[in-house]
Structures are given as structure tokens and as C-alpha cells.
Amino acid sequence: MISRDADEVLLAFVHALRVAGVAVTPDRAQTFLAAVAVVGADTARGVHLAGRATLCASPDDLARFDLVFPAFFSRHAGPRQAPADRSRTTARAPLPDRDGDSGPEEGESEVIRALVSDTDVLRSRDIAELSADDRRRLAGLFASLHPRPPLRRTARHQRWHRGEVDVGRTLRNALRQGGEAAELARRRRGRRPRRVILLVDVSGSMRAYADALLRFAHRCTVATRRQGGTVETFTVGTRLTHVTRALRTEDPERALAAAGATVPDWSGGTRLGESLQVFLDRWGRPGMARGAVVVVFSDGWERGEPDLLADQAARLRRIAHRVIWATPHQGRADYEPVQRGVLAVLPHCDHFVAGHSLAAFAEVAELVARS
Predict the structure, then answer these.
(1) How many whole angstroms separate alpha carbon 319 and alpha carbon 317?
(2) Is residue 361 one of the residues assigned to a domain?
(3) Which of 195, 199, 196, 212 is nearest to 297 (CA)?
(4) Does 255 map to a domain?
(5) Secondary structure of 117-174 in the HEC alphabet?
(6) 8 Å CB contact between 314 and 343
(7) 363 plus 345 within the same structural domain
(8) Cβ neighbours around 149 below 10 Å, total
(9) DSSP element (H, E) containing 231
(10) Cβ contacts of residue 300 below 8 Å, gap of 6+?
(11) Domain range holding 161?
(12) Residues 247-264 pLDDT 10s
């Protein structure tokens, strides 16, 4: 049993979810109020669990819910139980329809829109300029990224509703039906995920972005693995380090802690050419990079010989399906590619893109998926 005041707060929260993109139907909102009446509105955990169970219909909804919940209730007194009106046994507050005719007041809507707008601004800000609090908030937003593995065609065919006629299967079906072909069977070339390789620069010049880049690599590793794909991640500094095994842990904090314990050259120098040569000699040419989509996250500051880096980038381009170079400086309006490393690899890159914010990471993920 919850009071009308609590009903209004909960319905305002439902409206906030709709603004954030969660398609909450009126029946789900009614179920949410009933669930809160059972678990009690005096504990944040109870309201949180009741909302996740009743208001969310997909993994995307869960991610948005987890972002909106703390942001919304931090502006209120929090879930609490008001004095009970014994004449009522269930919540009977009017539910807002899809058009929001009976939603919260105008002032409440402005607060909700401000919260969502603040999240959008945070997604677009340069990571190097964020405060410690903003970095902690940004870490939770990586769950909103949904990387997909790029697909390649295989030699084998699979059944499909359109495409070329599968003569063999059409004839076998006809024989089972007494020799009469009632329907043409069709097929298409099969699809398999391509391997994705991430080379993350963790040198001193990339120190401000290293944590976010490894969080992005972890998100790609976990999400792609669930879809049957493979992501291999290496850190690049004064040496090359393979950190894929550490990033396969589902929990991002544990994964980053394990990766941090694996990498010996944090915030050191940059030897892109030598590291890329080691990668190609040990992992690339034997098969890992062949036909893969390779993404390099680096600002291009090279302490070694740029000619060596150019030669290794040319080797990589010959065996990889796509080479994408993401630099944080590309996100600045006045940026010009003048670094020696960037000038050496530009002729051998398929795409040269920004890598300075969460929004830029989302664009990189989409570019990889389309490769």
C-alpha cells in the first residue's frame, strides 16, 4: 500500500524512462505500482528491483533504466513510504498514456529533460577534459554501447527466404511429395563474424584516455563474444601486451584491474613501429590479423623510426580486411595530422576517425560492424 504522493513520484519516474527511450506501456506502469506496493516504497533497492522486473522489455531498456534511476531519484528525497491511508489497499493513481497527457507537471518534465540532456552532453565531451566525478559517471555509460561483430560471407550456403534457387533441396522436396515441386527452395551464402583486433596505445601521451579505451575494449569483447564473434585486444607502448584473457571477465572493474596487472608499460614511451612488427611476426601473419578488422587507438606520437612504422602499416593493410585508426585529436576542429606516426600510417588506413569521447566510440563500433 503506497500513498498518492509516492504514486506521483513513481509515475514521474516512469515518464523519465519514456523520455530516455524506454517504451513503458500503461499496463507495465500499473504492474510497477502494484509491485512497489508489495515490496514497499521505503527502500531504493526494492523500487529498483521492482522497476527492472516490470518496466524493462529488453537489454537496452535495462541499460537505460540503470542510468535514469540514480539520476532521477538523486533529485528527489528518494523512494520512501508515506503515511498509509487505510481506506485504500492498492495504488489507484491515474496512469499517463503514451502521449503523456496525464504525466508530471511542466517543472518536473523540465528536470527530467535536463537529466537526459546532461547525459547526452557527457557522452560527447572529450574524456581528457572530464573531472573525476564525470569519469565515474561515464564508466557506467559504457553499458549503453552495443557493438556488433562484422560479418563475412562463407563458402557454405544456408537456407533463406529469397536468393538463388537451391536446386538440390528443391528436387529432394519434390521427391518427398511424389515428384511434384510445390515450392522452390532458396539459399544464400552463409555469414560468419569477422575477427576484430584492437591495438590500444597506453603510452604517456594517451594516459588520459587509457582507462576509457580499455573499458571500450572490454565492452566490445563481452558483447561480441555473446554474438559468436571474437575480439582480440593488445596494448601498445614500449612493448606489445596481449590482454584479451583479462578483458573476457564480465565485470568491467575486475576486467580492468586484471588488465592493469598484465600491462607492464603504462604511461611510458611509444614505439608503434616495433610493437606493430612484433604483432605481425607473432600473431598477424600466422592468421589472427588475416581478414580481420584492425582498429588502432593512438595519437600517433612515435619515438621510433617512422619508416619502420610505415612499412609495418603497409604489411598490416595487405593482410587485414580493414584498418581503422582512431585518434583523440581528430575530434578537435583545428586538428591537423602532423605527427610523424600519423603521417606514416595514413596512406595505409581505410578510415581515420575520432576517438575522444563515448559518442566517438559508438561511431567506431558502428564503423566496425559495417566493415
Answers:
(1) 6
(2) yes
(3) 199
(4) yes
(5) HHHHHHHHCCHHHCCHHHHHHHHHHHHHCCCCCCEEEEEEEEEECCCEECHHHHHHHH
(6) no
(7) yes
(8) 24
(9) strand 231-236
(10) 272, 327, 337, 339, 340, 341, 342, 343, 345
(11) 153-192
(12) 999 999 999 999 989 998
Strand partners, 325: 296, 352
Same domain, 93 and 172: no
168 and 211 share one domain? no
**pLDDT tens sequence across 166-185:** 888 888 888 888 777 678 88
Q: Is the CB of residue 368 less than 8 Å from the CB of residue 146? A: no
> What value does the CA radius of gyration of the chain take, rounded to a whole number of Å?
26
Cell numbers describing residue 30 = 500499473
My answer on whether 99 and 188 are in the same domain is no
Distance, in Å, from the CA atom of 221 to the CA atom of 22, rounded to the nearest integer, reads: 26
β-bridge pairing 164-165 and 231-236:
unpaired
Grid cell digits, residue 349: 588506413
Beta pairing class for 322-327 and 351-354: parallel
Joined together, the cell numbers standing for residue 285 give 601473419
In terms of pTM, does the model score above 0.90?
A: no
